[in-house]
Here is the input.
Amino acid sequence: MSGCQLFGSSAKKESEKDTSNNQTTAPATNPSDQSNNTPSDQGTPALPLPAPSPSTPSTPPTSPAQESSDPAEIYGIYGLMEEYNNFVGNKHGISMEKAKLYTEDADYATFSITLSNGNGLGMVVVKETKKVKVFSIVSVISSNADYDKLYKSAAVLLMYIDRNVTEDVLTDILTQLGYGKPVEQINFSYESSDLELTTEYVASKKELYFDVYYKNN
Here is the structure.
């Protein structure tokens, strides 16, 4: 994720957007190898004695290394969480804490991650490449503090995605994505060559969403 330039000059603002998130789901398989033990050959005895039993190999076969059965480890979620926390999360007080598999299908695995400030973070990973396709932050909005908390979570995530983003550029991007406007009016998008960022308020659930879509992953 590091090195992605999402705040380039090619970015554009759309005042309204109509997006929907279709999260797909998928099973991981952990094949294991089996080893065959072949008895060693016996020499012919000098006297006509009963045939001896096959000898036991002197070195027992070794079992292949067991693959992890934890999807969050298989798809690199723990490593991403550690990198995020070390780079921006701990510094700004919004760290990733717990991860669990939410859904999966043949192509994608979707994880649910708890942020230390109470927001939820969804993460869709491409199973074949183990690259993130979507980040999605969500918060129930019942006060101005909830509103500010979601946008702060979004700012910290964007600082993780683009390590070179400046405060001025970050403020401009979040303003274009609705920060400062009444929550009922929030429905915006912002694009760069690599990413699409969207914000949307779902009134029926009183939830505000901030989504990051990777175009090329």
Notes: The longest strand covers residues 131-140. Residues 1-16, 18-51 have pLDDT under 50 and may be disordered.
